[in-house]
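subagent[fold] <- orchestrator: predict structure for attached chain, return tokens only, no commentary.
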Amino acid sequence: MTAATHSTLFPQVPETPDAVLDGLDPEQREVALALHGPVCVLAGAGTGKTRAITHRIAYGVRAGILQPATVLAVTFTNRAAGEMRGRLRQLGATGVQARTFHSAALRQLQYFWPKAVGGELPRLLERKVQLVAEAAARCELRLDRNELRDVTSEIEWAKVTQTVPADYPAVVAKTQRDAPRDPAVLSQIYSTYEQLKRDRSVIDFEDVLLLTVGILQDRTDIAEHVRGQYQHFVVDEYQDVSPLQQRLLDLWVGDRDDLCVVGDASQTIYSFTGATPDHLLNFRTRHPGATVVKLVRDYRSTPQVVHLANGLLSQAHGKAADHRLELVSQRDKGPEPVYAEYADEPTEAEGTARRIRDLVAAGVPAGEIAVLYRVNSQSEVYEQALADAGVPYQLRGAERFFERAEVREAGTALRGAARAGGNDSLLDGAEDLAAQVRAVLSTKGWTSRPPAGSGAVRDRWESLAALVRLAEDFETARPGATLTDLVRELDERAAAQHAPTVQGVTLASLHSAKGLEWDAVFLVGLTEGMMPIAYAKTDEQVEEERRLMYVGITRARVHLSLSWALSRSPGGRASRRPTRFLNGLRPGSTASGARSGAGGGGGIDRGSGRAAVERTPAVERKPRSPVRCRVCGRTLTDAGEMKLMRCEECPSDMDEALYGRLYDWRAAQAALLGQPDFCVFTEKTLMAIAEAVPSTAGELVVIAGVGNRKLGRFGTDVLAICAGEAIDGESEEGADDS
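subagent[fold] -> orchestrator:
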């Protein structure tokens, strides 16, 4: 069994301690054997970190070095803790505690509260939103459901960063944090919320950590009791530790050094919750004698995916970038990442759905495919495109678009306005459909300018803005449509989404994809303003956006597609630019200053495909204008017709013999690459080439479906075939016959 092999459902428990080490790679084995003193494991994406630390604990227990009841393994989610317990049980290491920070702290708090404080532990507040709403009301503020969620999250952030209400405004100013409300007002709500909890003898989840810290600081006898119980600590995902969690960990460990931490600074994407990689990056400073092991062998992704991930981080800046890990893929070569540029968002969604349908037809299970985007409001167009393509899908970490509360509320308001018709004063002066929708939705929180910052208010605005855009597109497609027509369209769309939950393509935000992986990943909407997100203003915020994209890339095992649209809607101005993070990585772009040698650790197979692209001079794309049929002059909107640059019904002047040669050449190329034929060129692209018969790189690259990447890879062959010349692997006789 190799390090990359998945265990069976019921694996056999290793017979001996040494058998626990079987199948570990050299670095993982080094982790497993480092059982004394502080240990820091820097583990890149897909390198088997959970495998390494569970085998470390299991080996220590099975060899008699560690007593299972004295080991506490801490992680951040119940799912991760459950997975760790399951793996330890399979390795014969029962009795080890694997818990989240909150679970471990709550257990201690319940046990020691009667002794430390007296009486029963105050009731735990499962959901603090209602109490936050009451605190806001006492401050003479009425917050809607989404604003409450934002304010509640901000209070949680303040508590895990150990910021008291009085200090909150100053801390916000110092950290340049985007607060959902005026900091002084938030400070008042925060203070009132804390007073209400005291009055009612309740505590929240953050209090569990704070109170445990307080007891361990004040009562040395209790602290010694805990340290006598737990003598060996393991912390997973250490880059996500908050200052409060680090303080609790310090109190657990005391002046001992039996601590093992595991993390990757390049996967720090939750700073908005108080997470910071500083504790991971400063571990060697705080523990000068620590053993540091780097895991860089990537068992998840192909060399092509890993190469792109490394390239993305090579341009990063800041402290986390100085400690980046350069991954080395352990898998066989796979297809190159696909870079796809589209005219508009609906075309991008349709193109993505078509590629997914082709992958499913080629044997990739729908459940092993994911579409990842920056914000949840982007899901609707992909839900629709996949539904239209007959591809099953499921949403992760978000409600279906038409099931979101704000979308349902908006639908109710639009339905009421449609029934009222001209009797609704809200519609006075709104001459067209889009203006009517904007007027109605302005009562629900839509504004012409997006709100600053992230959070629920921004999510709500994005959902309403998506409805406004849909109305604009609907009116463009159906001039003269009424509000009643639009409501009917919305109802039909909503009804189409109410199919039973099926195992299908995952639609998810990049944040909710952390910790998961798929055979094929589509990163969509990669334009400036979305990646990095528009409200990422500081260098630190932009670098976190880069890390978020890195997490997205490293979710892919084999197939990876990165796409963007030049405009929002069909016929719109092509003013968007692909994300700066791909500069120097996608064909035809210029690097913005890559770093070399940072972090390091091991070499990397650079592959030959991208080098070939870089040697071919890139042809600059001209700004896009409406595509017209070259036969009848009609404006084209269908993607297939746009590839052919003519209407389907218009006569074709395709060179049949040339098409035949291109068809045979494509089949041979696909066989060499081990990919489906369409990965070289689609049928429509072959037809377009055979019709246009390009003679130069400039004429070839503008054909839809070619682009700079495929020009660099296949351009020489295609132009030679179009010129009637023989190419390698093809006989002169066959060329003459064409």
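orchestrator: received. Logging for downstream: The longest strand covers residues 556-567. The two ends are 53 Å apart (CA to CA).
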